[in-house]
Amino acid sequence: MTSAMGESHLSLRGITVTYADGHTALAPTSLEVQQGGFLVLLGASGAGKSTLLRSINGLVQPTRGEVSVAGLPGGVVSRRNLLEHRRHCGMVFQQHHLIGRQSVLANVLMGKLSSRGSLASLWPWSKSDKLEALAAIDRVGLLEKALARADTLSGGQQQRIGIARALVQKPRLLLADEPVASLDPATAQSVLTLLHDICKKDRLTAIVSLHQVNLARMFADRIVGLRQGQVVFDGTAAQLTEEVQATLYAKSPSIEPTRSSSAAIAGSPFDSPAQPKEFLPC
Ligand SMILES: Nc1ncnc2c1ncn2[C@@H]1O[C@H](COP(=O)(O)OP(=O)(O)OP(=O)(O)O)[C@@H](O)[C@H]1O
Questions:
Q1: What ipTM was reported for this prediction?
Q2: pTM of the full predicted structure?
Q3: Domain formed by 2-88+172-279, architecture
Q4: Domain coordinates of the chain in residue numbers?
Q5: pLDDT tens readout for residues 208-245
Q6: Quick one: where's region Disordered (predicted)?
Q7: 42 lines ligand 1 (CB under 6 A)
Q8: Which of 147, 148, 205, 265 is the most exposed, fewest CB within 10 Å of its CB?
């Protein structure tokens, strides 16, 4: 899968998510995600950002559509392929999901569970596992905290540990669901700088949902804007005009793209530009 923009890492084709209560959180969505890109998802609360992220790694089962990943023929339909995909897919959560009374090291080692067989999980961690975990903790600048309880760390430090836990998995794809939403602006920027730098250095493909438009502008190679479960913008930070932003965050139920958002969409340098409403079954 290669395009003018480079090698494709991930393809979403017509992914639709309707939850058990009948609510369609994601209308048919198709995206081509380039290898090594830092893609930011923007959108108001309830727009479908988490649903999109979770449908990529199967935490939410798409009602329709297909996720395919480079190097994994046949997509992630079979259980075997889904497990293989997840093995290379690190996840960073807003609330870190650390076990507070466990040490930082023990928490980071959890990131290695997906690469162990179910029986092997019963065995103690090997020296090389521990060294890898310590190296990941060092990368996020917290080696001196390796033996501290996770709940003694600040919010920003805990999120750095969440990143280390994802890194120890040696991911190719990193999904981060509002990773800095609960941090103060300065800490949020420094945690996102760390995440961005690591992704670029390791050439990881990253898909990150954010609420802070300024941070999206600062870090994103590409911004995908969701509104009421539909992609209404797909472009660069420069193309994210005030008007597009207003469309994304408008309170009105209307999701018609504005003229300038359509222009931005039309000018998108990516293979799969936004799908304005007229392209989507409503
Ligand atoms: N398990 C579920 N069952 C039913 N509806 C759900 C479920 N999870 C999410 N939703 C609904 O789907 C829509 C999209 O939710 P989602 O969490 O994906 O949005 P979001 O953009 O990530 O929001 P936020 O920024 O607040 O996290 C919302 O209307 C939400 O209420």
A1: 0.97
A2: 0.85
A3: 3-Layer(aba) Sandwich (3.40)
A4: 2-88+172-279, 98-170
A5: 999 999 999 999 999 999 999 999 999 999 999 999 99
A6: 254-282
A7: no
A8: 147
